[in-house]
Amino acid sequence: MQETDHARCLAVLEGCPTPDCALHGDDTLQALIAALQHLAWELHTFVERGGRVVEPGGQDVDLASIFGRLWGAP
Length: 74
Fold this sequence. Notes:
Layout: E1 7-11, E2 21-25, H1 28-48, H2 63-67
Antiparallel strand pairs: 1-2
């Protein structure tokens, strides 16, 4: 969402204990990248603590292939 002097992007992880949050940037691309980085860090922490992210069929999602360079510890 573009606001007057900055943009924000809402980051939501359904099924995780992480609260919803809005990440801000100077423009919409910056806000989106910040939100993606936040989601990658939160999912990385979730998986490191033994959590699983699975597809509807029950197979683990390859989060590293989805997030690429964003995947990893902060």
